[in-house]
Design brief:
The protein is globular and about 80 Å long. The protein has helices spanning 3-7, 11-24, 35-53, 63-75, 81-89, 95-105, 107-121, 134-145, 150-158, 171-175, 179-191, 210-217, 277-284, 292-305, 325-337, 342-351, 353-356, 382-393, 416-424, 439-447, 454-461, 468-480, 486-498, 503-515, 518-521, and strands spanning 162-163, 224-226, 239-241, 378-379, 522-523. 50% of the residues lie in helices and 2% in strands.
């Protein structure tokens, strides 16, 4: 723990938790660090840096802005209208903290995190077109919802063996079937390091050598992914073994034969007759590993703020300077001390005043992109956009939100949601703060079959004896998670009244316009 961490009052508490972990293997709930205290640590560091750089912070977001942002960031979907109304009308001073607890307890939290991580762990390429991701996605969703410690989740992925039906985590190795892909992915996702640059030559910008790459790759030389039957029925599904038998892996021409060695670490003793990956997994997911906690903290921060302390988020190296190095280390220490409790980390981030700020820049901070003086505006991901449209319009016919179900209730690809996501997907490595959709995506939104249902949706809003102003308010609450301004109500009410006798069509036009607006398409 560094000096600032001790001054924040975390050192003693962290020591208690670490001691408990050593005995039980998990952090007891009563001894877990307080997320509010960690949030205070975040704000102190951010505010000190803003003051040093003479950059003003934007004010606090209003409840509507915070609600929509938190719902999208934590659960991946806008909140339902009734939740919006209750939150906006609440006078409870603790309503924001209670909202975060509610969102983290929602099944949609795990669903959203599974969306995020399946795309990181399962490459979208032609080699994986027949691979069934369903079992793995379901496993990820259940793991995140159960708040399985992150180190345990990673260990289970890295050591997975058996068939996909028996052990869904093997899907990771089925999707990354070669030694070089496994090495590259593990280093990026769990060490925050782009080690692939050293595969063919010594890294030109760091001290990493080609031998460092192949020493890490040596841990995967006994892995045998079986992809002969990617569409097989349960009981005969593809799988992964690590007995060293079968066809040896194909290696690139640049491959070197060197002993297995931890990245920038020691060379462990390996039993030739035993699997190698458990040894690597124990090192990677250890609280003592200087890369592991920092990699997850930086990536999670980037998920919520649009950029990490270090960017790209998977390029943690000495010459890629962090915007807030001490805060990154503080958060990594707290995350490790909590037993790698991801919900604890997320709650601390969401409770911080840094996250509670508005996305509207102040007069002196509009050019700031590194100091977090205001919250970044992020386009909705394809998953967020599809699911949020369904909140307003209802799910489309012809399939479930994540596609149909196969034998055993597994989710399969090819459903409306998967098709939508594939059409709107951004290129790998795209910045979360940049809008990547083009004319084809805009036209699809404008003319999607779902949009043909706007009149019926509007009619449902207008049922009973609601006045035009009340209907407009309900439309805004449902789609934008806020009430309309007086000017918006006046303008839209006039539009509806101008279409006397065709109010249903007029309301439908309003729904269509709102859902195609930049305000709906952005997380702000």
């Amino acid at each position: 723990m560094n000096t600032r961490f001790r001054k924040a009052g975390w050192h003693a508490l962290a020591a208690v938790v670490v001691a408990a972990l050593a005995v039980t293997g998990a952090a007891p709930a009563a001894d877990k660090p307080d997320a509010a205290k960690l949030a205070h640590c975040i704000d102190r560091d951010i505010e000190q840096k803003l003051a040093a750089e003479k950059v003003a912070a934007s004010p606090r977001a209003d409840d509507a802005e915070f609600l929509r942002r938190a719902a999208l960031d934590v659960t991946g979907v806008i909140p339902p209208a009734e939740r919006v109304t209750a939150f906006l009308d609440s006078k409870d001073p603790a309503r924001r903290e209670k909202l975060i607890d509610e969102l983290l307890a929602s099944p949609q939290y795990g669903r959203h995190m599974a969306d995020v991580w399946q795309h990181l762990m399962l490459p979208r390429d032609s080699d994986n077109r027949r691979l069934q991701p369903g079992p793995f996605v379901t496993w990820l969703e259940e793991s995140f919802n159960a708040n399985k410690p992150w180190d345990r989740t990673v260990r289970e992925v890295l050591t997975a063996t058996g068939s996909q039906d028996e052990s869904p985590a093997v899907t990771y190795f089925l999707a990354n079937p070669t030694v070089d892909k496994q090495t590259d992915s593990v280093a990026r996702l769990f060490l925050g390091t782009q080690l692939q640059c050293a595969q063919c030559h010594n890294h030109p910008f760091t001290k990493w050598k080609q031998d460092d790459y192949w020493a890490m790759a040596a841990f995967f030389l006994k892995v045998r992914p079986d992809r002969l039957n990617p569409g097989a029925k349960p009981g005969n599904s593809p799988g992964v073994s690590e007995d060293g038998k079968g066809r040896p892996p194909r290696l690139p021409e640049a491959a070197r034969t060197v002993p297995a060695k931890f990245f920038q670490g020691e060379q462990p003793r390996l039993d030739r007759n035993a699997p190698y990956r458990p040894v690597l997994a124990d090192w990677i997911a250890s609280p003592k590993n200087k890369f592991f906690a920092r990699a997850m903290v930086n990536r999670t921060w980037g998920q919520f703020f649009g950029r990490g302390f270090v960017n790209p988020v998977d390029d943690l190296r000495e010459d890629n300077v962090s915007s807030h190095p001490e805060l990154l280390q503080d958060l990594a220490d707290a995350f490790a001390a909590s037993g790698f409790d991801l919900k604890f980390l997320v709650k601390a981030i969401c409770l911080s005043e840094t996250y509670n700020r508005t996305s509207r820049p102040a007069s002196a901070n509009e050019k700031d992109v590194m100091l977090f003086s205001h919250v970044a505006v992020k386009p909705l991901t394809p998953e967020q956009l599809y699911d949020s449209l369904n909140v307003v319009l209802g799910s489309p016919r012809g399939g479930e939100a994540r596609g149909g179900k196969g034998q055993g209730g597994r989710r399969l690809g090819g459903g409306p949601r998967e098709q939508f996501i594939a059409f709107f997907a951004a290129d790998e490595g795209a910045l979360a703060t940049e809008y990547h959709a083009g004319i084809p995506q805009a036209l699809r939104l404008m003319n999607a079959p779902q949009m043909n249902n706007t009149n019926a949706v509007a009619a449902a809003f207008a049922r009973g004896d609601r006045s035009p102003a009340q209907v407009i308010e309900q439309l805004y609450v449902s789609a934008l998670s806020r009430r309309p301004t007086a000017e918006e109500t006046k303008r839209l009410t006039a539009y509806v009244e101008k279409h006397d006798g065709a109010a249903r069509q007029a309301y439908g036009d309003v729904v269509w316009a709102v859902l195609n607006s930049s305000e709906f398409a952005l997380n702000h």
